[in-house]
UniProtKB/TrEMBL annotation:
It comes from Pseudonocardia xinjiangensis. It holds the Pfam family Cyt_bd_oxida_I. The chain crosses the membrane at residues 20-45, 66-90, 96-123, 135-159, 192-213, 225-244, 327-349, 361-382, 402-431. Belongs to the cytochrome ubiquinol oxidase subunit 1 family. It comes from the Bacteria. This is Cytochrome ubiquinol oxidase subunit I. It is a multi-pass membrane protein. Keywords: Cell membrane, Electron transport, Heme, Iron, Membrane, Metal-binding, Transmembrane, Transmembrane helix, Transport. It is found in: Cell membrane. PANTHER family: CYTOCHROME BD MENAQUINOL OXIDASE SUBUNIT I-RELATED, CYTOCHROME D UBIQUINOL OXIDASE. InterPro entries: Cyt-d_ubiquinol_oxidase_su_1.
């Protein structure tokens, strides 16, 4: 203990508080993805409607804007819960470092209010604004959805690589929030990684819904466009994520060597360190895994003979739960690789043959891709957050020094789980109601209109 608290917090409180926070993140993060990516897809559809005059694009944009409203409303609920949890579960963290990262949450709050205003303008302006002004009213939604998420990620990046302050007698002094939040080597790879993940999650989930319709024989132009647009966005994002992942791994290797060792389960410091697929870390080594020689050194430092520091070279109290980190990381990478393969198949057929794939197996894979992308998203955040343990602020404040000493967390945890269950059921019902609303009737052929046939 480094003296942040005058008392040692019961470990039970720490585990319960972390589980409660993790539950809230798991519910909220997919909604963040929709807030970042869905407005862009909607504006693209509206732009296509203005360019081509085809009503199918406008119909899709209008229907998806209702989904955006529903998910934004739920995001307000889950985001508010997270805000309260920050102060209630981690009072020492917020009280000590609030002056450092507070600017990030202030800008995020401002972005949220601007986004809410323009979502209202956009949704209620479909028949009240000219097409150009209506399209323009959606641009701030795209921008604020990105800036709000960007500011939250600046705080997370700072937690992984803290700077912009000094500690003097346990007090934070000489605070420079701009340097702390924006001059951080973790910031840009975290933001780009999350931004691309947002298009993967949103694109594959929406495409999966319409893939079900395609499997049921609904192959109208509406359903084909509704599948092609989000699937194309997700398919462009998925291969790009592999490049960003390499960037992130090299930054982690330089700044958080203990996390890099935990990702692989590397016990001893090794020159030409291998990667083990699957397996279980125990007693300083990975057992039952499939070894790929020198791959960890190559991926982390772009040199197959480079030396990677092992877990046994760090104090035991500074190690994260290795198997949790390894399983989460390999889950993220495995699903991400499968999604990238699916994306390449789709793009190849789309570009080469100028059509959608014909195989029913492809559409079955798209249906599974949406939930799989959510699993990969949450696994990625587990990798980031659990891999930083036991630190809430890396190298500065431990998580058990930040947690509340209040009792009653199990009761709050149970109530929160029940509330989230109700929210999930409610959202499912709302989205189902929106999905079954009848489509507008197709206009009659032009020649019939000219002849006066109703």
């Amino acid at each position: 203990m480094s003296g942040w608290l005058s008392q040692v917090i019961d470990q039970d409180y720490l585990l319960q508080a972390r589980q409660m926070q993790a539950l809230s993140f798991a519910v909220h993060i997919p909604l963040v993805c929709f807030g970042m990516a869905l407005p862009t897809l909607i504006l693209f559809l509206e732009w296509r409607a203005m360019r081509t005059g085809q009503e199918v694009y406008r119909t899709l944009a209008r229907r998806w804007s209702r989904i955006l409203v529903a998910l934004f409303a739920v995001g307000v609920v889950t985001g508010t819960v997270l805000s309260f949890e920050m102060g209630l579960l981690w009072p020492q963290f917020v009280g000590t470092f609030g002056s450092v990262f507070g600017l990030g949450f202030a800008i995020e709050g401002f972005s949220f209010f601007v986004e809410a205003i323009f979502i209202g303008v956009y949704v209620y302006g479909w028949d009240r604004l000219s097409p150009r002004w209506h399209f323009a009213s959606g641009i701030p939604i795209v921008l604020t959805g990105v800036t709000g998420s960007f500011m939250v990620i600046t705080v997370n990046a700072w937690m992984n690589n803290p700077s912009g302050f000094r500690l003097q007698n346990g007090q934070v002094v000489d605070v420079d929030p701009v340097r702390a939040l924006f001059a951080n080597p973790f910031l840009w790879h975290e933001f780009v990684h999350m931004y691309i993940a947002a298009f993967m999650v949103t694109g594959f989930l929406i495409a999966g819904c319409y893939a079900v319709s395609m499997l049921r024989g609904r192959t109208t132009p509406y359903h084909r466009v509704a599948l092609a647009v989000p699937l194309t966005a997700a398919s462009v994002a998925a291969p790009a994520q592999i490049v960003v992942g390499d960037w992130a791994a090299r930054t982690v290797g330089e700044q958080q060597p203990v996390k890099l060792a935990a990702l692989e389960g590397l016990g001893a410091t090794t020159s030409g360190a291998p990667v083990h697929l699957l397996g279980w870390y125990v007693d300083g080594e990975v057992r039952y895994g499939i070894e790929i020689p020198r791959l960890l050194s190559l991926l982390a430092y772009h040199d197959p003979d480079s030396t990677v520091r092992g877990l046994l070279s760090f104090p035991p109290e500074d190690l994260p739960p290795v198997n949790v980190v390894r399983i989460a990381f390999q889950t993220m990478v495995g699903i991400g690789s499968a999604l990238a393969l699916l994306a390449v198949i789709f793009l190849y057929i789309r570009i080469r043959a100028h059509r959608l794939p014909a195989s029913r197996w492809f559409y079955r894979a798209v249906v599974l891709a949406g939930p799989a992308a959510v699993v990969a998203l949450i696994a990625g955040w587990v990798t980031t957050e659990v891999g930083r343990q036991p630190w809430v602020v890396y190298g500065v404040m431990r998580t058990n020094e930040a947690v509340t000493a209040a009792s009653g967390i199990p009761i709050g945890y149970a109530v929160l789980a029940a509330i989230y269950l109700g929210v999930v059921v409610g959202v499912g019902w709302i989205l189902h109601r929106l999905a079954i609303r009848p489509l507008p009737a197709d206009p009659p052929p032009r020649e019939l209109v000219e002849e006066g046939v109703p």
